[in-house]
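Project standup — Tuesday

K.O.: blocked on the structure for the chain from last sprint. Re-posting the sequence here as requested.
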Amino acid sequence: MNQRISSAVNSIVTKFSRRNALLWLGGSGLGTALVAGTQKEVIAQGNRPRDVELVNPPTLYNAPQNGYSHIAITPPRTRTVYISGQFGSDLQGNLVSNDYEEQLVKAFQNLRFALNAAGARPQDVVKTTVLIVNHTQEKLIPLGREIGNLWGNKLPANTLIPVPRLALDGMLFEIDAYAVIPESPNNRWD
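H.V.: unblocked you, prediction finished:
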């Protein structure tokens, strides 16, 4: 049935303007965005019907090259986990270093600890917010590395906010996260 619908949609889409047509089909498991003028479909739904959908429409610039996705859509019957900003701190709340990169690496490690404590995995993260003191392009290099280490190519939505200062003197980096997990462990989709 879905193949027949997709065929009909492809026929309709070719009639639209090659630059402006975006057709979204939702519901009943069909989650495909098609853009006329391109030769490829953008799959908005993951391989499994209960995956978080990470969408990067071809009508927007290539966000994954910068370490994030434009849109994250959560599946039904999930719980949302909100993780406060994690920074480069030890167990006593002291900064591990005055160095930006060392703080960033420790903040990502702390984010992993928080996800684990909530029963979530990195793949369950749908949105992050990154705060960087005195942001520069060079600071994106270690950030990109840590993003790649944690998420590979399944990149959550993200907002990066340059700031003049964070909560503690000497604090240079902070990351918070939103994750979604199934209502019960029996509903795990991996």
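K.O.: great, moving the ticket to review. Strands lie at 22-25, 32-35, 41-43, 53-55, 71-73, 78-86, 125-133, 157-163, 173-182. Residues 78-187 form a domain with the 60s Ribosomal Protein L30; Chain: A; fold (CATH 3.30.1330.40).
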